[in-house]
Amino acid sequence: MKRNVLLQFAAMALLAAVPFAVYAHEGGKHPDQGSNSLIEEMLILQKAFQEIVVAVVLKDNKGVINAIEPMKGTMEKTHESAHTGKISLPKNSGKLDKFIKMDKEFHHNLHLLEESAQKNDYKNMHTLTKKLLDGCINCHSTFRK
Ligand code: HEC
Predict the structure, then answer these.
(1) Pocket of ligand 1, candidates 74, 113, 136: which has the most ligand atoms within 8 Å of its Cβ, to mutate?
(2) What pLDDT, in 10s, does the model give residues 122-144?
(3) For site-directed labelling of 134, which of 2, 6, 45, 119 has its Cα 20 to 30 A away?
């Protein structure tokens, strides 16, 4: 009997977690804004960056490499959508070139972080992670409301 109650609890907990899992997996489904590849890229970035911070702190270079993997290709999708007018920037929407430049620089730094992790270069991993955080904040202050 007690076991059944426990099982029921476990099932309820799992069910409660499902909507979040679906949100994280499908990405791009934003409650207010519908679906677009910029939001999708951001949700992947959010999860990946949390993992990166912990992995850098623990000098877990494999963790860094694994965290970067899902971000590959997200930028290209966003830029394609930006050019075909499928996404609109909430602020300074006319400065698309600047947005693309900032995003490219951000992903370039991610690539350098991956290379540093492959070389076990912890000092550079630290420097680049700080640079990436600045990248999130700079772009948000320009393009996010
Ligand atoms: C090159 C620009 C750029 C960079 C770099 C960037 N973002 Fe964003 N981000 C945006 C824009 C623009 C929005 C607003 C999108 C919207 O609301 O339509 C946004 C929105 C978000 C959101 C909200 C998504 C949602 O569901 O509304 C999260 C989370 C996020 N960014 C995380 C990050 C993190 C974490 C980083 C750095 C690791 C980062 N972003 C780097 C441009 C950027």
Answers:
(1) 136
(2) 999 999 999 999 999 999 999 99
(3) 119
